[in-house]
Structures are given as structure tokens and as C-alpha cells.
Design brief:
The structure holds two protein chains of two kinds. Chain A has 17 helices and no strands. Chain A has helices at about 1-30, 35-50, 55-60, 65-75, 80-110, 115-130, 130-140, 145-175, 180-190, 190-200, 205-220, 220-230, 240-250, 255-265, 270-295, 300, 305-330. The longest helix of chain A has about 35 residues, at about 80-110. By secondary structure, chain B is mainly α. Chain B has one domain (about 10-45). Helix content of chain B is about 60%, strand content about 0%. The longest helix of chain B is centred in the last third of the chain and has 19 residues, at about 25-45. Chain B is elongated. Classes of the chains: A mainly alpha, B mainly alpha. The interface between A and B is medium-sized, with 32 and 24 residues. Chain B: Keywords: Membrane, Transmembrane, Transmembrane helix.
């Protein structure tokens, strides 16, 4: 079984490696080009022009695992002293942004756009916390229909693709510092992968702050999902089953990120080892972002309902503008 | 023994139980195990 699995994964992994190499080569040759953005673009180009080959699909899917390994390794380059200094402020911003985002999307979706309660809750969770994982976790706790979840996931993926392109451009145009851009992207964008990609597309500092801010936001998934479970408790389903669903969707790599951050900050790793870990994480991100590109399907985005897109668009514009003003003032 | 046919010792792969446990593991835990192993290996070998 093990050998068969490796044989199944090898072609897709080789394709990821080939495109990652190509992305780095192009970025080295063409000034101003970012390897991570090129990696996403190459994956998206192939997926949308010729489609994902069947023989490569299993290996390409491993990109999601490589992304999480890269994020855990990123813990080694995070200075806990620096996080501790800005930590309370970042945590406060995350809590306020998530709370305001959930309430605003709930009200907007129900009162202004007339969406169903469950659809509104899925959109609120997906856009305020951690994209697809949050939507799936909340869908389990409120017993939402598969169809509703599909629409929300498509909407989130659409905005992941758009923000991945626009945020780095906006960061450059506004001449934001690495920390400002990282915290802004971490507060405003949706899924963890695109947030990290946009951050590193700006600068390594922005990449680290984007990831730390986004992981803080992700950690609120449990609180929000349990809140929704309590809110919809009368709609049936045992609370134990709902809590299990929340735990299933909870991003466990957060634990690994904290472990690696503590080990690195305890001074247990030499500077040469830290540099090697950084290089490995860079390559894992490039491989993962090629895979992320393969997930961008323009045809599926066209099928997304217009109303959920409008709700999320209003939310994204409002949150981005407000957090940009706050971040540029405070950092 | 499977369907009444005994398996020869050479057919039994000791990696199979490990592989099936690995596949059943949540992706977040897989990422944590892989990354912590990498950190341990690089931390010990790259000085």
C-alpha cells in the first residue's frame, strides 16, 4: 500500500517541483517578479487552460500538506519577543475584526440581501475567520445543507484568488512596511494559504506577520463555531457530535507552529540550522503555491451565486479599509 | 490469511500499518510531525 501510494503521488509531486523550479528561475531572470506569485500563476494557468491531469491530481493535492508543513516551520523564524511586544495589540485587533465581521455579515446577509439564516452564518464564518475550514466547521455545527456550503466555499475561493492578486499590488502602491502589510493581510484576507502567499510576495517580514496574525484569527474558530452550535442548538443534533465537528476542522498545525516557535526561541537551534529551516520553508511554500494555483478554477467561480459574492465583497471592502486605517496608524 | 490463502512472509510489509495510521491522521497533525522531525534533523545535523 505504501509503495502504491508513493507511485500515485510521485507524478503530481514532480509537476509541483518542476513548476516551483520554473517559478524561481523566472523570478531570478525577470526583475520585479515574485517566485511565489509566479508559482500560483503557473498552477492556475495549467488548471484553467488544459485542466489538471488525472495522473497528477493526487500528488498536486499534497500541496495543502506542504503548505501546513511550511507554516509550522515558519514558527522557527518568528521572534516570540517581538510577537509579545505587539501581541496584545494584534490579538485585540483580531478579536475586534472577527467579532465585528461576524455580526456585520450576519446582518448584511439576512437584512439587506435576504439570505437564509444558515447561509448568512456560513458566509460570516468563512469570511471572518479562516475561509473554507471555518465554513466547513460551522456547517457541521449548524447542520447546513451541502449546497449552501458549496456556494460559500466557491465564494471564499473566488475572493482568495482576487485578493491574492490585489493585496500585494495595493501594499506596494501604498508603500506599506512589512509589518503593516502583514498584519493588514492577516486581518482582512480569508484563507491561510493566500494570506501567507500575499505576505511573502510583499516581503519576508510581511510574510511572518501575515501568518502570525492569520493563525491568531484561525485560533478563534473554536470559539465562533461553539457559539454557532449554541445559537442553533434547538435545531437538532447532539452537542457532542457538533463539538467533534469543530475539532475535526480545527487547524491542528497551530500546535506545531507554537512548538517550533518555542524551540527556536529557546535558543536550541544554531543560526545555520535556522537558515536551513528557512530555506526548506521557502521551497515548501513555492511547491504549495503551485498547488494553490491548481485549485483556482475560473469556470467554477462563474457558477457562484451573485448574492453571496456581493455580501462578501461589501464585507471585504469595509474590513480592508478599516483595518488599513488602523494598521497604518498603530504600526 | 486472506480468503483462505495464507500470505507468505515476504508478502507482509511492516510499513503497511504505519502507512495506514499515517493516512488516517489529520493533515494538521501530519504537518506538525513532518515539520518537527525536519526541525530536529536540521537542528542536530546543521551546526
Amino acid at each position: 500500500m505504501a509503495r502504491q501510494s508513493l507511485r500515485t503521488l510521485a507524478p503530481g509531486l514532480a509537476l509541483l517541483a518542476l513548476f516551483a523550479l520554473l517559478a524561481h528561475t523566472l523570478a531570478d531572470v525577470i526583475p520585479g517578479l515574485n517566485a511565489l506569485i509566479v508559482a500560483v500563476a503557473l498552477g492556475a494557468l495549467v488548471a484553467n487552460v488544459v485542466g489538471t491531469p488525472d495522473w497528477a491530481a493526487p500528488g498536486i493535492a499534497v500541496g495543502a500538506l506542504l503548505l501546513e508543513v511550511g507554516i509550522v516551520l515558519l514558527g522557527a523564524s518568528v521572534s516570540l519577543a517581538e510577537v509579545q511586544a505587539s501581541g496584545p495589540l494584534v490579538i485585540l485587533l483580531v478579536v475586534l475584526t472577527v467579532a465585528a465581521g461576524v455580526v456585520a455579515v450576519e446582518l448584511l446577509a439576512r437584512r439587506v440581501f435576504g439570505l437564509s439564516d444558515k447561509m448568512a452564518s456560513l458566509l460570516a464564518a468563512g469570511s471572518s475567520i479562516c475561509g473554507v475550514s471555518a465554513a466547513a466547521a460551522v456547517a457541521g455545527t449548524i447542520d447546513a445543507d451541502g449546497d449552501q456550503l458549496t456556494h460559500v466555499v466557491a465564494t471564499v475561493l473566488l475572493f482568495d484568488a482576487v485578493t491574492l492578486l490585489l493585496f500585494p499590488l495595493a501594499g506596494d502602491a501604498l508603500a506599506l512596511s512589512g509589518k503593516q502589510f502583514g498584519v493588514w493581510a492577516g486581518l482582512s484576507m480569508f484563507s491561510t494559504g493566500p494570506v501567507a502567499a500575499a505576505g511573502f510576495a510583499h516581503s519576508p517580514v510581511a510574510g511572518r506577520w501575515a501568518t502570525v496574525t492569520k493563525l491568531t484569527r484561525n485560533s478563534l474558530l473554536g470559539v465562533v463555531a461553539v457559539g454557532y452550535a449554541a445559537r442553533y442548538a434547538s435545531d437538532g443534533g447532539t452537542s457532542n457530535a457538533k463539538l467533534r465537528q469543530v475539532w475535526t476542522e480545527f487547524p491542528k498545525f497551530l500546535v506545531g507552529f507554537l512548538v517550533v516557535a518555542v524551540v527556536a526561541n529557546a535558543g536550541l537551534l544554531s543560526s545555520a540550522a535556522l537558515a536551513s529551516i528557512d530555506t526548506v520553508a521557502d521551497w515548501l511554500f513555492t511547491l504549495a503555491f503551485v498547488g494553490l494555483g491548481f485549485d483556482i478554477r475560473l469556470s467554477e467561480m462563474r457558477d457562484t451565486g451573485l448574492t453571496p459574492v456581493l455580501v462578501v465583497l461589501v464585507h471585504l471592502v469595509a474590513v480592508s479599509a478599516l483595518t488599513l486605517a488602523v494598521v497604518t496608524t498603530l504600526f | 490469511m486472506e480468503d483462505g490463502v495464507p500470505r507468505a512472509c515476504r508478502d507482509i510489509e511492516p510499513v503497511e500499518p504505519v502507512a495506514s495510521h499515517w493516512v488516517a491522521l489529520d493533515r494538521g497533525w501530519q504537518a506538525t510531525i513532518l515539520a518537527v522531525t525536519l526541525v530536529a534533523v536540521l537542528g542536530l545535523w546543521v551546526v
